[in-house]
Amino acid sequence: MRKLLLAFIIILTTFVYLGRLTYLQLIDNSSQNPLDDTAIKAVYDYPERGHIYDRNGKLLVDNQPSYDVMVIPREVKPLDTLEFCTLLNITTEDFDKKFRKANNYSPRLPSVFVQQLSKKEYAVLQEKMRKYEGFYIQKRSLRHYITHVGANVLGYISEVNERDLKNNTYYQSGELIGRQGVEKQYEETLRGRKGVKFIQKDRFNRVIGSYKGGIYDTLPVPGKDIQLTLDIDLQAYGEKLMQNKRGGIVAIEPSTGQILTLVTAPSYDPALLVGRERSKNYTQLYYDSIAKPLYDRGLIAMYPPGSPFKAVNALIGLQEGVIDENSTVVCNGGYHYGRGAFMRCHCSYGSINDMNRGIYRSCNTYFASTYRKIIEKYPSAEEGLNAWNEHVKSFGLGDFLGYDLPIGKAGRVPSATTYNSIYGENRWFATNTISNSIGQGEILTTPIQLANLTAIIANRGSYYTPHIIKKIENDTIAHDFIIEKHTSIDPENFEPVVQGMHDVYEKGTARFLKIPGIEIAGKTGTAENFTRIEGKRVQLTDHSIFVAFAPVDNPKIAIAVFVENGYWGSRWAGRISGLMIDKYINGTVSRTDLEAYVLQGSLIDEYEKPLGGESFYINDGKTYNEWPKPKEEEIPQSKAINTPTTDE
Length: 648
Known about the structure:
Keywords: Carboxypeptidase, Cell inner membrane, Cell membrane, Cell shape, Cell wall biogenesis/degradation, Hydrolase, Membrane, Peptidoglycan synthesis, Protease, Transferase, Transmembrane, Transmembrane helix. By secondary structure, the protein is of the alpha+beta class. It has 21 helices and 24 strands.
């Protein structure tokens, strides 16, 4: 009886296992991956990447065919290596290195062996590839740039790396992915989705047809076209004006937040990062640590905002009720504060300035006095500074803004915590932070933040999140970009500030920059510029800053321009701002005298001064720097009393 029972159990167990195996093999395909079967080969069909257009429908980027030599290491049979290398224009050492890399990635999955064949190479190889088992040619698309500008905005595509493969299972070795700019930000939209066909082979590695009738095959989904808010003609003009200079230009349409231009200088031709020379060209750009062409100054360079920030302090003063537009301050060539400290100003001795004159004359004394009143309105400097901080942040400063580009900096807006860490808990006063009154000290902004600030003033207190996307094929843009945002300042407080900025062109530091037929409001700015040489803090020629919007009563453009080592606001940045406004609104340039000055001018000598190993003058010979600069006590920038005295 026991023998019969044992036999029954063995037979029953056998049938259970056989039944389960039959179910898994013939019925249940839920967890089956065709590539787990070594007799199955995946053939990918790559869709065309979406095209990129500017705001006016001009084609900026499309595609061109490209052919890669692929390898599946386990399928490679003995071959004439020398002949094959000659066809591919590589050495036998290159062959060994590439094959090892492919085999390390996966012996049975395809990877790129030689990428981006020329048309001539492809034509020769196509007829001979049958001789080389385990190798085949994969067609892809490479980017083709119709434009030669806007590289920082457009970005580029390149082969995925190990980190990409680890972070995203969609990609396989040798595939392309967006890097920088809109190519990175809108990667999934532009790339589409690749299709795949699974081919079955017999034991002799011969193709015998589709795997399971093609039930696992998928069709490619083309990438979507996108339209940018960028005006490519304005972008090209901005890059032209910034030749032989460093800095950034950001222009925004105030009524929508659409970015009209995003210039970084120096820049490069985006076509340099396409083709087999891409890696070599990228390396040269990457290791240019002096000019930094890959560094997007419009988005990530942080500068003191300088005198344009005086408009913010005027608005906060009005909102806090510590001044009105008729409040006056007597300027005696500067502002005395603290223990004998003195902030210089270019106003003549005994000048009486109200808000309007304070803005168009860019009076340091007026705004130092206003800032101090704001802070000292509160029981403690800490409370006053934090109240000021909240107002400033409502303008989008100290924040990433939420725009749709993959890089950025938040800038810096100091709070009470900042000064507690410098001076000790509650051991500081408004006078210790007085440089904030004129956009110096601890406050830092990016050009896009300053352009957005200018758009806010143009809109009298509201703004839309700056963005680069205007339209995606068959889609709508993100909801965040159409929500109107507001500052902490009441709309009626903006009018006297706007009038003061308009008078900058009528009576003030930009009166020689007027554009015929266009009413412009603007503000010049100059920011101190320091670097470190051999570990010592050395002053360089000041930065030139300018913000403007136009027309005053129906703003179509708000712009911020930073020119590094540009002396003062109206010298370079002011001229460039006016030319950009003229070009955008009128389509032509009426002030050809300003244009000639900018195009013929160069600041290369200024940029080379700290590299020469010799003493040098800065700011048109007003200051002499010895080399190396004698060691001096480092002090917080907010205590510095050598503030720029002119914005002209």
